[in-house]
Amino acid sequence: MNRFALIGASYKTAGVERLGQLALPKDQIAQRLPSLAAKIGAQELAYIGTCNRVEFVLAGDSPLVVQACRDKLGQLLAPTPLLETETRRIFRAWTDEGAVEHLFLVASGLDSAQAGEREIYAQVRGAWTTARTAGTCGLQLDYIFGEALRAAQDVHQQAARPGNADSLANFAVTRVVEHIAGRSCRIALVGVSPMTRHCARAFAQKNLPMIIVNRTLESAQEFAAEVKADAKSLEAFKADPTGFDVIITAVGGAEPVLDRALLTKLAAAGKNPLLIDLGVPPNVDPEAAEAVGLHRVGMDEVIADAASGRAAKLGQLASARVVIDEHLERLRSEYAIREAAPLLQRLTTQYQQAAVESLRRLPRNGGGDDEALRLWAEGFARRLAHAPIKGLRALAAEAGPEAVQAYMAGVEEALSDNERAPKDAGKDTPKEKRS
To answer: What's this model's pTM, rounded to 2 decimal places?
Structure first.
């Protein structure tokens, strides 16, 4: 699996603020991927961006020089190009099977701040779709993303069940419930995303009044109907963001949704709403919120809430690690066969050529000379055996006798299958006999 690499920064290595600076704006990802792939030297490239990670999955027809790719990403993503030492501190790099394993853990939610959360599954699938749209996803990434999502499905079915797989959004819900303390309230959820969907469904169960805000009004209305809420376009919300006790934001974009001007308007209205900002980069200008005296809860605080119980949560999900290992073991075998397929096809072609050449030497005296036929058959067998024997000697020198034993076991199984086949297989049936 030496054609895969993964380069990523997370809240653990970069912090939420720096992570926001490195993230690609959602509406620019498909446009920027081809250029990034060309600049870092990756034939295939996908981008996974969430509230607690920025990761690039790379693939190529030959092993990737991952350190060089990582250094170039540090120069291309940051507002000010990072020094090499800083890049290598912030960005982790995985290659070969390690890259595949990390992608499996990410897709399964086992590497998330809230271990076992399920929103990441949809985000990984979305990253795959976006790379296809951008034209930077080929056969290699198609293969590995498909396997990662299958592994994640098995983890969710067998280990990370809803009872032990909370979302980071649950911590936002807890903050809101504590803030309102049973009082009547109005909640605005800005952006239709996995995080705001999770929050809205939790609030709906508590019969809390909500308004769903989105750039596209139709999307807001569709989700609002599901959770029995009102809907409003983002443009209309920004024209008048007042009158809410809680505002939760999770919008993909480079610029804050609630900037200094809107925050000043909110503060002047006197409602003093709780602002929960689930955006990376921030949807609520942190410095402006502090300056006007509004309470903003950012992703760093939400992640800190989750981190306090992460070790215990991973303990509950110990069986999920077994599921991942089983998928890796199967993939290791399947990928080796997949990679060997062109070599096996070449060997088949060589056998066919050897057979054609040997047939030219077949005795044609028509007298049924058994000794001549025997000598021809022995020569034919030696010609067919020459190539694999030479290859097996090289295999034994490179990988040890166990590899040769595995090969011979497959050969003996194939020969046994042939011996068990009906002896009249391939013969003409009575109806098919020639007259």
So the answer is: 0.71
